[in-house]
Design a protein that fits this description.
InterPro entries: Transposase_17_sf. With about 130 residues, the chain is mostly helical. It has four helices and two strands.
Length: about 130
Amino acid sequence: MPPCPGLEDADRERMEHSPFLFGAEQLFEVGDLMGRSLVQRLAAPIFALHVGSWHFHLIFGVQPDNVPAAVKCGKDAVRFGLRPSRPIWTAGYDKRYCFDEASLRGRIRYVERHNERAGLPPRPWPFITTP
């Protein structure tokens, strides 16, 4: 979709802090912090992860905690690991469920392509597993 300057201006006016973008040198560390925390603290199997400068894509399998707890775990791990002097995440997130194997595999491949476009292997972290 084309840019919408009016919406962009309105969003900027509502922001309490200036935008926070991860530097290219931080992206691998952000993914590592997030993934290791989810695996260690929640025993969440991670099927795909991509970290961009301003957002991430994460696909994880069934685990005993709910989606909000998993998102909080990942975001907190990065915040505590990097120790920024200000907030770095927005409230909320987009969640989608996969109810069949074809849907799951399609979404995994979508995330892997993001890594490949960034010059990374499809599964750049050792904690990523297959479903």
